[in-house]
Amino acid sequence: MKAFGILLGVLLGIIIPVTGLLAQKIVTGHVFQDKYGTPLDSVVVYTQSGFQGKTDSSGAYLIRILPKDSIWFQFRDKLTHKYPTNTIKNPHNFEVQIYLPKNYVQTPKGYLPTVTVHSRNYYEDSLNFRQDYARTFNYQKPGKALGESFGLGDNGGVAVDFDQIINLFRFGYNKRQQVYQKFALDIEQEKYINHRFTKKLVEQITGLYDEARDEYMQACKPTYEQLIKMNDAQLSIYIKKSCQAYFHKKSNDKYEKNIFLSPYEQRDQH
């Protein structure tokens, strides 16, 4: 009898832990910090039964649960509400999003640090462009530069810039420099136009978007000479009036093209 009691105790000591292990299940998934699927590292995962886990650099976690258990997540001072485990449809892929403030950025291990991109500045770009191509912008025709080739030297004599005199006879070089200078000026003027005549401004004034906006901007784009004579208020008026005139003319043209002509009128036109 004593031996039976010992055997029963041993069996219970084995069966009860095994039964407990069989009752345990696993929940796995990922935690993200935004709707784009950016992983969130070091999120602590809790269960009502007392188990605990943590997400890795990929936002992945794994935690044990018991029947009728609950699970919740904590990142710093942010807590999610508790999820009853019996309501989790796919315990092998239970994904959670913890939205963080915009100024918070976490760089996961193995990822490059965040790069801050500054918006382009037209005035800085223009200045840099002038500096990079200073020689092209400052080019003068040899006839004009020749007058600057002569001057007084330090000893009171005549100083001569022979490079300018030589350039007078470099016809191919002079022609290319003039072409380069015109090309550089055209680029600079185009940058100025695009800086002021923008999609955003056209959208605000006309209410046009996408194809209609692009069609208007291509057809009614002001020239550099026109634009430098306008202040911002005058440019707004130009956009409003030119937009109305363009689409009014377009509607009239479309109407005229659809007018039915009798055979006699068609013959007369030919």
Verbal overview:
It is built from 11 helices and 10 strands. It has 270 residues and is of the alpha+beta class. It has a domain at 25-110: Carboxypeptidase-like, regulatory domain (Immunoglobulin-like, Sandwich). The termini are far apart. This is Carboxypeptidase-like regulatory domain-containing protein.
What's the number of helices?
11
Give the distance, in angstroms, between the N- and C-terminal Cα atoms. 124 Å
In CATH, what is the homologous superfamily of the domain at 25-110? Carboxypeptidase-like, regulatory domain
User: Spans with pLDDT under 50 lasting ≥5 residues?
Assistant: 14-22, 109-118, 145-153, 156-162
Helicity, as a percent range: 40-55%
* Helix and strand composition category: alpha+beta
The rough form would be described as elongated
Radius of gyration: 39 Å
* SSE pattern, N- to C-terminal: HEEEEEEEEHHHEEHHHHHHH
Main sheet: strands, sense, barrel: 5 strands, antiparallel
Average pLDDT = 73
Overall strand count: 10
CATH topology call of the domain at 25-110: Immunoglobulin-like
Q: Which oligomerization state do the chains in this entry correspond to?
A: single chain
**Roughly what fraction of the amino acids lie in strands?**
5-15%
- CATH class categorisation of the domain at 25-110: Mainly Beta
At CATH level 2, the architecture of the domain at 25-110 is Sandwich
Protein name: Carboxypeptidase-like regulatory domain-containing protein
